Amino acid sequence: MFSTSTKAAWWLATFFSVLVTAEMPTQTEAEPEFLQALENHTVTLGRDVHFTCVVNHLSNYRVAWIKSDSKAILAIHTNMVALNPRLSVTYNNHNTWKLRVSNVQPNDSGTYMCQVNTDPMKSQMGHLSVVIPPDIVDSATEGSSAQEGGSIRLTCTATGLPTPAVLWRRQNNKPIVFRHDGGREKKVVETYRGESLELSHVQRNDMGTYYCIASNGVPPTVSRRYQVEVHFIPQVKVTNQLVGAPLGSDVELQCYIEASPKAMNSWSREDALLSDKLAENPKLRVKEAIVNEYSLWMNLTIKSLALSDYGTYVCASVNALGKMESQVSLHRLELSMNGFGAEEPMVSGAAWQRARSSPTGTRPAASHAQYHHLTRELPPQIYALVIALLRYLTF
Ligand SMILES: *[C@@H]1O[C@H](CO)[C@@H](O)[C@H](O)[C@H]1NC(C)=O
Ligand SMILES: *[C@@H]1O[C@H](CO)[C@@H](O)[C@H](O)[C@H]1NC(C)=O
Ligand SMILES: *[C@@H]1O[C@H](CO)[C@@H](O)[C@H](O)[C@H]1NC(C)=O
Q1: Which of 5, 114, 34 is nearest to 67 (CA)?
Q2: What is the number of other CB atoms lying within 10 angstroms of the CB of residue 103?
Q3: What integer pLDDT is reported at residue 37 of this predicted model?
Q4: Measured from the CB, is residue 36 less than 6 Å from ligand 1?
Q5: Residue 375 in contact with residue 350, Cβ under 8 Å?
Q6: Pair (95, 11) in one structural domain
């Protein structure tokens, strides 16, 4: 018997000379033949994989494994030639050889050949593709903020094999808005492809959660969330600047606030903070209802109006960028009809405390909308009288 190293040397010589110098089988014997094709494999980094080569009628020939792109001989029979501890060959003592690659690395990708040293030699090939699931490597902050009109840039660097595609989308499929030319031009998309998302001339409705999603066909797809904040001076609007209600009735004063960063919101009267007195005054209740990231309703209910409750109420909001307030004048409504007016407050007038372009969908639902077209024409006091008269006549 030859020693292992002698055998290996002999085989190397054989493969390089492409000559079979050892005992030739007689021509009457059956030639070696492959029983099945070598597989192709797509394997995730770090996993193990094997190629199976099945040869019948091998006779005195030998099976070798070759990495065909580098021409490196990896193994002859079960003897390893390549100095790679992650490679091994097993033989089932019949007709099957398996080349195992454990803990696959990117440079294991390529074409592998199972070869028999006949003349001419016989071989078959299989491909190994090593893939790496996507990863997002950015260590950058996951939140970004700017003042309204400013710019925000979010970046998401993804690695993987093949190179992942990076896609941006917003929570709840809200539109991503790109503004150009000082905000006059805009392009609205649901998704954006690219590692860097640049938002300029940001508006408050650009605020919210953004996701970067990296995928390359190798599961799992990964994503990262980014919080975008747009800051601005609070805006405060009362639904009705003038509210009339009869003595003894309950009234709700409605105030709509937009603010970011978070603001301190309050109802006050004659410099006294009503919210501070809520605990002591069972007649008052402030209810807040969140509309979205930066908008809320803050409604003040005053129960069973007394004479001292009439007057001016102020809804105010203050954050790091400034303070805004809006007033409601609550006045007494004289009614001669029994019970009428007690169930709901009389309403007149509604206006933002300053001109603004309201983003669609954020305008408060105006109660008593049917009266609003009148409001614009008439001074509120006269309007209130007209409405009182109209109501009186209708009943
Ligand atoms: C392996 O891939 C090659 C090239 O893509 C192809 O020609 C061959 O048929 C594949 N082999 C198998 C067993 O699918
Ligand atoms: C393949 O990559 C592995 C891990 O990065 C390394 O240890 C090995 O030396 C490389 N082999 C070759 C042939 O480049
Ligand atoms: C305040 O009033 C508005 C307008 O009627 C209403 O939409 C909102 O739900 C109210 N909020 C609360 C907390 O009652």
Answers
A1: 114
A2: 12
A3: 96
A4: no
A5: yes
A6: yes
Say which residues have a Cβ less than 8 Å from residue 207's Cβ, sequence separation at least 6: 228, 229, 230, 260, 293, 294
DSSP-derived pairing of the beta strands 122-136 and 79-80: unpaired
Angstrom distance (rounded) from CA 248 to CA 261: 39
Total domains present in the chain? 4
278-295 tens-digit pLDDT: 667 788 999 999 999 999
Ligand 2 center to 107 CA (angstroms):
6
Q: For residue 332, give the H/E element and its range.
A: strand 322-332
CA distances from 98 to 69, 95, 207 (A): 20, 10, 57
| 114 lies in the same domain as 13 | yes
Cβ of residue 290 lying under 6 Å from some atom of ligand 3: no
Which CATH number does the domain housing residue 225 bear? 2.60.40.10
Domain shared by 312 and 210, yes or no = no
Does residue 262 contact residue 319 with C-beta atoms inside 8 Å? Answer: yes
Q: Same domain for 42 and 82?
A: yes
Entry pTM: 0.69
Mutate to test the pocket of ligand 3, among 254, 288, 292, 301 (most ligand atoms within 8 A of CB): 254
User: Which of 197, 231, 265 is where one domain is finished?
Assistant: 231
**Each residue's pLDDT tens digit, 166-196:** 999 999 999 999 998 877 889 999 999 999 9
Q: Which residue range is the domain that position 276 belongs to?
A: 239-332
Per-residue pLDDT at 110 = 96
20, pLDDT greater than 60: no
13 and 123 part of one domain: yes
State which of 213, 231, 249 marks the end of a domain: 231
Q: Please report, as a single letter, which amino acid is at residue 106.
A: P
